[in-house]
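User: Sequence recovery, please. Input:
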């Protein structure tokens, strides 16, 4: 997107080189995931992951009314985004996040920057999050206008 400055009316290109890289978190707010969170006492997980996203440099939070993986229980997917190029890598999927230990492990991982390798989001996981990992899928397709 090009902007113009008020004095010159000359187009100014945005400076993407300073945009921070960080994790992209896709969080399911669907009926099954939400119900499992409530049953497990994790009603606050959605608000906590939103706060985590706001507090983490370069993070992007995507909430979805359903990620379509209901058979996996309470799920989220995490990818790495390169700030300057805006490229998003593959998604690492995590299940059972109604469990407080798993949720806190995911939250701590995101706070610490999430995946460090854009093409291998599941390569270096904290030990406390390994049991929740359930696969990797291609990057999300995002329309750019």
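Assistant: Recovered sequence (145 residues):
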């Amino acid at each position: 997107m090009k902007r113009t400055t008020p004095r010159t009316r000359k187009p100014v290109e945005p400076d993407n080189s300073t945009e921070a890289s960080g994790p992209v978190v896709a969080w399911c707010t669907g009926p099954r995931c939400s119900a499992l969170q409530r049953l497990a006492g994790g009603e606050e997980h959605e608000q906590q992951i939103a706060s985590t996203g706001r507090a983490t440099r370069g993070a992007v939070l995507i909430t979805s009314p359903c990620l379509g993986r209901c058979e996996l229980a309470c799920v989220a997917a995490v990818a790495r985004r390169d700030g300057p190029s805006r490229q998003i890598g593959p998604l690492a999927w995590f299940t059972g996040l109604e469990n407080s230990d798993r949720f806190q492990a995911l939250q701590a991982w995101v706070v610490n920057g999430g995946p460090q390798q854009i093409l291998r989001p599941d390569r270096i996981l904290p030990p406390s999050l390994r049991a929740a990992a359930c696969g990797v899928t291609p990057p999300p397709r995002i329309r750019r206008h």
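The first helix runs from residue 31 to 39.
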